[in-house]
Amino acid sequence: MTAMTRPLLNRRLAEFGTTIFAEMSALAARTGSINLGQGFPDTDGPEEIREAAVRALRDGRGNQYPPGPGVPELRTAIADHQRARYGLEYDPDTEVLVTAGATEAIAAALLALVGPGDEVVALEPYYDSYAACVAMAGGTRVPVTLRPHGGRYVLDLDELRAAVTPRTRLLLLNTPHNPTGTVLTRAELTAVAELAVERDLLVVTDEVYEHLLFDGAEHVPIATLPGMRERTVTIGSAGKTYSFTGWKVGWTTASPELTSAVRSAKQYLTYVSSGPFQYAVAEALRLPEAYYDGLRADLQAKRDLLSEGLAEAGFEVYRPRGTYFVTTDIRPLGADDGFAFCRSLPERAGVVAIPNAVFYDHREAGAPFVRFAFCKRTDVLEEAVSRLKRLG
Fold it and tell me: What is the pTM of this model?
């Protein structure tokens, strides 16, 4: 048999191998370490929502193919959520699309809206699927780097404006922001919106952490700002808010024209998914405000526990105002290579983290930063903090 000479992997994906999450989770399992790398809770969400999924299964709702755009009950609940929370009016039939998690929503939006040669400006560091989806669409990613300043990561608006060229098609935003935990302010988002309108750019905004806010931070959907509703695809997800990440229920809200475009790509990815879970998420979106207050209070306490423990262990800590991740600088510990640090951490302290450099095009900018997840049980975080103090 003659050996194949042409590489098997599509050249657009040649730079992407196994994700760092898979690598570090496997390392955690192999070493028996506490996994604070991958961002998934270690407890399930509300029992009544889990029971809603069981009820849908037993009642035969969603066991066969659901409607392509999503079940009507969920699309209506999403539209109601956007109206009640943000004053955004969306037609459930023409402006809401249910997806296989936010990951598919991102992929479908970028495959639909970006063509070969189009530039996509994204805030760096960024969730790793952004880069792969831009590549699959044939686009060119243009990173604008968030940098630490005054204890938080900030957006340089001049750098953002300079990154936009005549080839720029789309701005890809994420707020609250993974991995830095920063929440873009109304002033920052207003400047981004003004740039998008001025340069006639589309915006895809990943808002899956919209309910995970601390210290009085405000989430401002960019679609609420002048001139933005008709040029913005907003992405949401049930996984982070309700702690059922395995259900993979996400969605987009956008104008009929943008929704139609995204649906054209989405129908050739999964077509449909998560049938019975869609009915359960429709109920989750109608949980009382007390649920969200409790979620935020619980996560803020866990954030503080881990952040203070990391600081005591010698890390410089950037305390997040959103998400369930905390970014640290390892240079006070005498290290500056996040990859090497994270690969040695299980043996040194029995804890797994993620090197932030994987979220950067400018790897050197992210080299000394490491991300920890705090969406774990309190006793797990206490044990992790105890172990990390061995580094001191």
Answer: 0.95
